[in-house]
């Protein structure tokens, strides 16, 4: 971890010694010592100081220069942001949907090295990499005590080839580890087990830092660890020794004061924080929490807030290290020596304790009195659209008949209360809750809200309440510890009686693995265009994410998930109307079954037992489970690439040469056709293949042609290791609206991945049109509105875009990770100037587009967009090139980040 021996460290006087409480000594790069040269360091936000320590420690005169240390140490709260930070992380975490294509890229790099006559072992992660299998289990079976076993057997049956590939990776790479299926969700496993607080190498201590291939990697910020989500291509570079480069950020201080009111949960708080910070536009910024209210929050509540950073748009939602952090480490089974080193290190660095107002310089300060937080849900389409519990019914009723442009469902108001019978005898109405899921990393890591759900279930059962028969219920905790404490407290049987039986340890419903509804429910929904609902304790509720036939999706705390499963419809006002009818025909209200904070607190001791955590995670190595043990992976340093519809050698290195392309090569895009015209909030769920694969889709047709039965299609996520499937599923979301296509007779917009192939104007799938354009040698571009690429850190949203031949994306604004991924795949992101849009330009999709950037591709420089209309007229406007940093210029010129890194490794 020390700088190159050929380089004399200009800040060598910052290498100091410190001692733990038990007298053990160690060395560190001291920030207080650096503050003697740069007094601003002592007032930097804690999150920036941890990044600064990494820059200081890795200063080697090559990738990290003394100027980088000076620039960050001299950070000013409101200065122009033109400097890039080279941040070298301590480790990388992966989940299986994004981890498998990343492993495929590493395997492909080794294949390239072998073909070039070089040692494949040159391709080796230089920092520890942990892959947690958590995205693959689907809720096919639910509501019964054997649901977990049945779902896991199906999971292993469907994913055998992927798991064999992972096992090959475990033996091929020295620093690559796997947490097998059935242990939990990556972010909770990260919190409970993988995060060590500080690392030690060669007598030198340094703080835990990471990037992960999932947006919600930010959950780790709850324990004072700097880390965030990146796409697989960035994570790959990080694990191969490249710093993660980003512009020096603004840091927003979020001051919490007061205390939560009785009856309010961490979920209510995080939905409020998400709404507030979206309003303050914190995209690309660090958010750091401080103040007395922050200090009062239990660690799981902090982690819940940190988890939602992607939803409020920030790079991080950081909580400083304090006594509550140490309590959490003790409760989750970290050793005494680890905790001592952790505390001593952060005290020595002046980073222990939650700051008070005035102690830190922030770019801006936002304040929230915890006492003003009210019970809430978010939805029905975006996580930042918070609704107080008492307004949910009215809001849904209002949106039901509002036009799509106003976030509504565009349905006739008189259809809201109409009853639609199914062939099974169940009556369905608009607003019916068809999926109620305790799911996701966000809330299933928080004992407070899970115990609240169990207590509410107990009170509901005792009152004689039952879940409505049309509701698909599931419990998918983030860790095996959850079911252990639910059993110990006697609450699990009550959840099971209401249908919330254990269905799996994984993301399940939140990632789109809700499993299907019954055929009769699907039939009545599609035939009558019903607007039915899901209520889940997740973090994402974008269109078609939860289930393709459920248009309204609400995020809620676990106890509210149970309550809505009982109520059965979101048009019931749970603040004034009964949740249901109990014993003796008596109405039962939410207040009758809502648990008090004292009841929850009395059970918390069961949730934080260090020995239980140590015993559980020891099984990752000693007893991972019979299903996993039966999986046999390949051997050897290089992968043999067997014929498979799950794993294939990716095409990104097909024309790879050791010599990079000429720096003066063509950077403009000439004569491009428009592939799509999109509106605002196009998410990576819209772009990247996700969820189930339709038989009639290009991907479904390809699988059928390769002998795969419909029952074995699995999901796009499970097939992320095969580019032929994924490129066919890019832009194929059933709810995406390409506004090139004319409105339908009723004024609504056509949904699905379609486009008009020009100049004929023929309607084709985007994939088919892309293949035709590529056959003709015609490049393509995409236009979009605000927040393009918001959502999960899916590298296939960029990889698929590139493989379809799309050379540039022009949008009014980009979400951070997707913009970076586009550059990393050699696709130009361009941003309209304020007031400009494709609508203001009058684009129809029939135009030809030229993109002419600055020949040197200067970061954030002006570029010319030349539009040639069908009548031959030409119009030019200036847009901003969103290649943001010098290293991104190098990535783009190299053909992408992967060829860039591979050349460096093979040249070493």
What features would you describe in this structure?
This is Aconitate hydratase. GO terms for molecular function: aconitate hydratase activity. Keywords: 4Fe-4S, Iron, Iron-sulfur, Lyase, Metal-binding. Pathway: Carbohydrate metabolism; tricarboxylic acid cycle; isocitrate from oxaloacetate: step 2/2. Residues 75-568 form the Aconitase/3-isopropylmalate dehydratase large subunit alpha/beta/alpha domain. By secondary structure, the chain is α/β, with parallel strands linked by helices. Among the domains are: 12-87, no CATH class; 376-606, Aconitase, domain 3, CATH 3.30.499.10; 653-686 and 737-907, Aconitase, domain 4 (Alpha-Beta Barrel), CATH 3.20.19; 689-729, no CATH class. It has 33 helices and 34 strands. Strands 26-29-30-31-34-33-32 form a seven-stranded mixed beta barrel. A five-stranded parallel beta sheet has the order 6-5-4-9-10, with helices on both faces. A four-stranded parallel beta sheet has the order 14-13-12-15. The longest helix is centred in the first third of the chain and has 20 residues, at 96-115. It is globular and about 85 Å long. The model has no long low-confidence stretch (mean pLDDT 94).
């Amino acid at each position: 971890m020390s700088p190159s021996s050929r380089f004399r460290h200009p800040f060598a006087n910052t290498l100091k010694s410190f001692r733990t409480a038990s007298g053990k000594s160690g060395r560190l790069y001291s920030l207080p010592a650096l503050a003697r040269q740069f007094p601003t360091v002592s007032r930097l936000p804690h999150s920036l100081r941890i990044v600064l320590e990494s820059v200081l420690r890795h200063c080697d005169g090559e990738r990290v220069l003394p100027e980088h240390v000076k620039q960050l140490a001299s950070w000013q709260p409101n200065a122009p942001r033109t400097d890039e930070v080279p941040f070298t992380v301590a480790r990388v975490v992966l989940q299986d949907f994004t981890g498998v294509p990343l492993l495929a890229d590493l395997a492909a790099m080794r294949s390239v090295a072998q073909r070039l006559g070089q040692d494949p072992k040159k391709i080796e992660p230089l920092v520890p990499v942990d892959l947690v299998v958590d995205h693959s289990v689907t809720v096919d079976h639910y509501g019964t005590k054997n649901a977990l076993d049945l779902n896991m057997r199906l999971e292993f049956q469907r994913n055998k080839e992927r798991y064999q590939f992972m096992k090959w990776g475990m033996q091929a790479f020295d620093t690559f580890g796997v947490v097998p299926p059935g242990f939990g969700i990556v972010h909770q496993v990260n919190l409970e087990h993988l995060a060590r607080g500080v690392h030690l190498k060669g007598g030198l201590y340094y703080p835990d830092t990471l990037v992960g291939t999932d947006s919600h990697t930010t959950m780790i910020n709850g324990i004072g660890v700097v880390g965030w989500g990146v796409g697989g291509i960035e994570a790959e570079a990080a694990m191969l020794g490249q710093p993660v480069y980003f512009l020096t950020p603004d840091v927003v201080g979020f001051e919490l004061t007061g205390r939560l009111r009785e009856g309010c949960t961490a979920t209510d708080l995080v939905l409020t924080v998400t709404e507030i910070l979206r309003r303050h536009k914190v995209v690309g910024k660090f958010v750091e929490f401080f103040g007395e209210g922050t200090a009062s929050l239990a660690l799981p509540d902090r982690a819940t807030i940190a988890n939602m950073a992607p939803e409020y748009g920030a790079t991080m939602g950081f909580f400083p290290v304090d006594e509550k952090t140490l309590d959490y480490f003790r409760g989750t089974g970290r050793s005494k020596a680890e905790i001592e080193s952790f505390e001593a290190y952060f005290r020595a660095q002046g980073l222990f304790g939650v700051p008070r107002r005035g102690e830190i310089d922030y770019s801006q300060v936002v304040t929230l009195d915890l006492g003003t937080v009210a019970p809430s849900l978010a939805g029905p389409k975006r996580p930042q659209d918070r609704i107080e519990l008492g307004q949910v019914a009215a809001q849904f009723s209002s949106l039901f008949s509002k036009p799509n442009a106003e976030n509504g469902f565009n349905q006739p108001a008189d259809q809201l209360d109409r009853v639609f019978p199914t062939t099974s005898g169940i009556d369905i109405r608009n607003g019916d809750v068809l999926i109620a899921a305790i799911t996701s990393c966000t809330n299933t890591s928080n004992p407070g809200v899970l115990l609240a759900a169990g207590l509410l279930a107990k009170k509901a059962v005792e009152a004689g309440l039952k879940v409505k028969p049309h509701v698909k219920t599931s419990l998918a905790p983030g860790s095996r510890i959850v079911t252990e404490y639910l059993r110990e407290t006697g609450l699990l049987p009550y959840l099971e009686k209401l249908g919330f039986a254990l269905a799996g340890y994984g993301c399940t419903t939140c990632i789109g693995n809700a499993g299907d509804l019954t055929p009769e429910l699907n039939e009545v929904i599609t035939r009558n265009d019903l607007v039915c609902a899901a209520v889940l304790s997740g973090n994402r509720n974008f269109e078609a994410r939860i289930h393709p036939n459920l248009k309204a999706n609400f995020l809620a705390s676990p106890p509210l998930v149970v309550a809505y499963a009982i109520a059965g419809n979101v048009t019931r006002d749970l603040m004034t109307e009964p949740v249901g009818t109990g014993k003796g025909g008596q109405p039962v209200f939410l207040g009758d079954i809502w648990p008090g904070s004292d009841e929850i607190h009395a059970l918390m001791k069961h949730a934080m037992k260090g020995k239980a955590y140590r015993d559980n995670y020891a099984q990752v190595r000693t007893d991972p489970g019979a299903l996993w043990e039966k999986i046999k992976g390949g051997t050897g340093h290089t992968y043999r690439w067997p014929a498979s519809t799950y794993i294939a050698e990716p095409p990104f290195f097909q024309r790879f040469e050791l010599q990079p392309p000429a720096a003066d090569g063509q950077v403009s895009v000439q004569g491009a056709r428009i592939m799509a015209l999109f509106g605002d909030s196009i998410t990576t769920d819209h772009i990247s293949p996700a969820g189930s694969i339709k038989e009639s889709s290009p991907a479904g047709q390809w699988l059928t042609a390769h002998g795969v039965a419909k029952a074995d299609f699995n999901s796009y996520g499970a097939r992320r290791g095969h580019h032929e499937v994924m490129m066919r599923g890019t832009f194929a979301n059933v709810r995406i609206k390409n506004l090139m296509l004319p409105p339908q007779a009723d004024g609504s917009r056509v949904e699905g991945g379609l486009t008009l192939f020009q100049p004929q104007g023929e309607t084709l799938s985007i994939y088919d049109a892309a293949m035709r354009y590529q056959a003709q040698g015609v490049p393509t571009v995409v236009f979009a509105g605000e927040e393009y690429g918001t959502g999960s850190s899916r590298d296939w949203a960029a990889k698929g875009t590139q493989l379809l031949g799309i050379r540039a994306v022009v949008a009014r604004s980009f979400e951070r990770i997707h913009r970076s991924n586009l550059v990393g795949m050699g696709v130009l992101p361009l941003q309209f100037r304020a007031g400009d849009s494709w609508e203001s330009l009058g684009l129809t999709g029939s135009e030809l587009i030229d993109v002419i950037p600055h020949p040197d591709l200067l970061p954030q420089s002006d570029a010319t967009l030349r539009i040639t209309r069908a009548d031959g007229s030409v119009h030019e406007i200036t847009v901003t090139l969103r290649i943001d940093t010098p290293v991104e210029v190098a990535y783009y010129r190299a053909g992408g980040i992967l060829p860039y890194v591979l050349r460096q490794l093979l040249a070493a």
